[in-house]
Amino acid sequence: VAPLSRLSFNQMTAGKATLREVVDACVKHGVDWIGPWRHAVREDPVAARRLIRDAGLRVSSLCRGGMFPAATPEERRKKIEDNLRAIDEAAALGTDLLVLVNGSAPDRDIDGARQMVVDGIAAIVDHAEKSGVRLGVEPLHPMFAADRSVVVTMGGANDIAARFDAKRVGLVVDVYHIWWDPQVYAEIARAGDRIFAFHVSDWIVPTPDMLMGRGMMGDGVIEISRLRGAVERAGYSGPIEVEIFNEALWAQSADAIVDVVARRFQEFV
Amino acid sequence: VAPLSRLSFNQMTAGKATLREVVDACVKHGVDWIGPWRHAVREDPVAARRLIRDAGLRVSSLCRGGMFPAATPEERRKKIEDNLRAIDEAAALGTDLLVLVNGSAPDRDIDGARQMVVDGIAAIVDHAEKSGVRLGVEPLHPMFAADRSVVVTMGGANDIAARFDAKRVGLVVDVYHIWWDPQVYAEIARAGDRIFAFHVSDWIVPTPDMLMGRGMMGDGVIEISRLRGAVERAGYSGPIEVEIFNEALWAQSADAIVDVVARRFQEFV
């Protein structure tokens, strides 16, 4: 079982709380890491960094850049500009990892959209390197292939990352998105040092909602410990982010959510 | 574009209609093939066969066997018995293909459940051969991995089928389940002569429901013609089943549903 010192609380697990409420709850429950989202920090990332550091917390990653595919070159250029801003925000926030959720095809051409992802990363990777920010390609569950990410498998993410320097472009491995894949253990081993982050939650049955239906660790069917063992054998020893989008959970206070996350983490991760 | 002569109307596309209503609508709209479900034919498959044949239709497949994994040997034995009955029903109905939807893990051990699928097929394949019935392993979309099928990729289905005689155990390729996979074209080519059936529908955005949210061909993002070309290059030239689970569609008459399916088929498949 993973020690509490590795737990990072992804801000969207308490999606309705303020950054300060989340920080306070983390301090109270002994959580050392936090994973903020851009919408909560972009107005003043330096102030957010101070709030987090003054509380004694560290930032595991910033969510999220990506969303590269678009119908026109002009739209794709705007998306690249937004990613350059995201890199600046990550650096200002004091984290070396920007999570990329890569976007969907603007038409029916999914392979074309995958190439747009590669081109988008190629357009920002130098700025990321200069800024001391690594880029983490996150494969999403295939049920999001049409509206959020054409990158839907560890294999597909590995293929994209392999085109870039292994120190600059790697993978974000989230058990919710990849647990079902018969190739998942082979692809985790293949990713090796390119695993930049590890996220946990659970797949509950029945799934209450495609986007907002993630479960608390232990409530579902995912072999979380087995997957953690695999990413650790591949070389990953960093923080483990808990990222759960769930309306029923969001209805609770940040304090109550961090409390249950910390307990479940020590039992099921 | 595929000719109307290849269209098979899967009965569940008009999920609230009787078999007779579906047969009559197929005749009216020039559809030559039908794909019944067990619940509609199991009481008297010989009478169902007569109803279908007298109307001049042919049966493309019977849905569905499978659901092999279970917590105890006794439960698994009962599931095998049910599959033996499904084979008998397929033979009585006059089709040489039983579609297998393979079931979910009784616990968190997804690889163990995949082995139970292999063991289940091994337990029924001789009876299938004697009965002149082929077994079609259908990979379902990964969003069904926890509750309907641990077989969720073409690669996983190919790995299972490869353990058996290529004339007896093959794949059912449904675009809805496999369109998102970066390996799909490689795995279709690998399947080759093992492609026993090809199903079409569309992935609409947003998806109204995980189970009942399939779309009519042309309304979504799936590259249907490209996938049809790939299965044909792999060697498949049989009927193409339209299988759409959708509440809004089911609210219409069988006549109206078959009408729109036949028109969309000739435009988008």
Structure write-up:
The structure is a homodimer of 269-residue chains. Chain A is of the alpha/beta class and 269 residues long. The first copy, chain A, is 43% helix and 16% strand. The first copy, chain A, has eleven helices and eleven strands. Chain A has helices at 19-28, 38-41, 45-54, 73-93, 110-130, 154-161, 175-178, 184-191, 224-233, 247-250, 254-268; strands at 7-10, 33-35, 58-59, 62-66, 97-101, 134-137, 169-174, 195-200, 202-203, 214-215, 240-242. The first copy, chain A, has a nine-stranded parallel sheet. Chains A and B meet through helix 6 of A and helix 5 and helix 6 of B.
Please give the structural blueprint.
The structure is a homodimer of 269-residue chains.
Chain A: E1 7-10, H1 19-28, E2 33-35, H2 38-41, H3 45-54, E3 58-59, E4 62-66, H4 73-93, E5 97-101, H5 110-130, E6 134-137, H6 154-161, E7 169-174, H7 175-178, H8 184-191, E8 195-200, E9 202-203, E10 214-215, H9 224-233, E11 240-242, H10 247-250, H11 254-268
Parallel strand pairs in A: 1-2, 1-11, 2-3, 4-5, 5-6, 6-7, 7-8, 8-11
Antiparallel strand pairs in A: 9-10
Helix pairs in contact in A: 1-11, 3-4, 4-5
Which features characterize this protein?
alpha/beta, nine-stranded parallel β-sheet, homodimer, 43% helix, 269 residues, two-stranded antiparallel ribbon
Largest sheet of chain A: 9 strands, parallel
Task: Indicate the low-confidence ranges of chain A by residue numbers.
Answer: none
Number of helices of chain A: 11
Mean pLDDT of chain A: 97
Oligomeric description of these chains: homodimer
Determine the strand fraction of chain A and express it as a percent band.
15-25%
The chain-level structural class of chain A is: alpha/beta
- Compute the number of strand runs of chain A: 11
CA-CA gap between termini of chain A: 6 Å
**Biggest interface and residues each:** A-B, 30 and 31 residues
- Gyration radius of chain A, rounded: 17 Å
Q: Report strand order across the widest sheet of chain A.
A: 3-2-1-11-8-7-6-5-4
Element pattern of chain A in H and E: EHEHHEEHEHEHEHHEEEHEHH
Helix content of chain A: 40-55%
Shape of chain A: globular
